[in-house]
Each structure stands twice: as C-alpha cells, then as structure tokens.
Amino acid sequence: MVQIDLPYILDFYPQESEEQTQIHKFFTNLKSGKLTTTKCTKCGTVLWQPRIVCRECLSDELEWIDLPTTGKLYAFTQVNAGAAITLEKDVPFCIGVVELDDVGIKILSRIDNAKYEDLDFDMPVKMKVVENEDGRVMYRFEPVK
C-alpha cells in the first residue's frame, strides 16, 4: 500500500493551534482530558460545539466551561461503507449520539471498544481522548465497563 500525504481539505481532523482556530482552547483542554465548550456570559446560552459568537444573541462575550465526560447512549448506528477518506480503514465502526450527564447536551461521537450488537439505548459511556500521529486530538466515547 502506498502512503499518500492528503491535502488539508481531505483531512478529517481539524487544525488545532491558536494560529489556525479561535477555539484552540477546546483542543488544549481536551489534551488534558477535559471536555469543554463555550457559554455566553450575556444571555447564558451553553453552546455546543464551541463557538466564538453566541448563536442566540450574537454576543462575542463567551467563557469556557467544563462539560461532563460521562453520559448515556441516546442513539447509535454502525458505519459499514462511505466513511471519510481517513477512516475507511476502520470500517465497520460505530457512531452514536451521547447525552452528557447532568447538562442535557447531546453530542455526536465515534463509539470505541464496542460492537454494534453490544450497544443499547441509555448505555453508560465515558469519554476518551484519541491522539493522532501528528499530535492533534479528538474525543470519542466508549461503554463504561
């Protein structure tokens, strides 16, 4: 198999440095195991995914808050084909909607260390941090054992 350097547009993982994104603090926090997002200090809206402007009142007065790293599986499916170009080697894999504990926020995530037939609605899950070879990070969830 030939290794190909992908152009950024085909790269599944976002750029994470301060020079490349205004939400770089999300990735810095994630590297230390914390799931965070932004909250508007003007209207109180908690924003998922992290943003630089509030979707409700358009204020840019935001603060970073911690989110739970545990939750329950709200919905799930298995990807058998049509995965993004950097993920086709992982097929089949599961993805799901995780409802975070105590905050009611639902986030989409890959579900690791589980087969589709072993997943169930309301199954407890916990976040894990996955690091790419180049040091970039992403969150995923896995069943609590």
Write a compact overview of the structure shown.
The protein has one helix at 24-31, and strands at 35-40, 46-47, 62-67, 70-79, 93-100, 106-111, 124-131, 137-143.
Element layout with pairings:
Layout: H1 24-31, E1 35-40, E2 46-47, E3 62-67, E4 70-79, E5 93-100, E6 106-111, E7 124-131, E8 137-143
Antiparallel strand pairs: 1-2, 1-3, 4-5, 4-7, 5-6, 7-8
Note down, in words, how this protein is organized:
By secondary structure, this protein is mainly beta. It has two domains: 16-67, no CATH class; 69-145, OB fold (Dihydrolipoamide Acetyltransferase, E2P). Helices cover 6% and strands 37% of the residues. The chain has one helix and eight strands, in the order H-E-E-E-E-E-E-E-E. The chain has one helix at residues 24-31; strands spanning 35-40, 46-47, 62-67, 70-79, 93-100, 106-111, 124-131, 137-143. The strands form two sheets. It has a five-stranded antiparallel β-sheet. The chain has a three-stranded antiparallel β-sheet with strand order 2-1-3, with helices on one face.
Query: What is the CATH C-level name of the largest domain?
Result: Mainly Beta
**Proportion of residues in β-strands:** 35-45%
Indicate the radius of gyration in whole angstroms.
16 Å
Structural class: mainly beta
Report strand order across the widest sheet: 6-5-4-7-8
Shape, principal axes of CA atoms = globular
Query: How is the CATH topology of the largest domain named?
Result: OB fold (Dihydrolipoamide Acetyltransferase, E2P)
CATH architecture of the largest domain: Beta Barrel
Helix proportion: under 10%
Distance between the termini: 36 Å
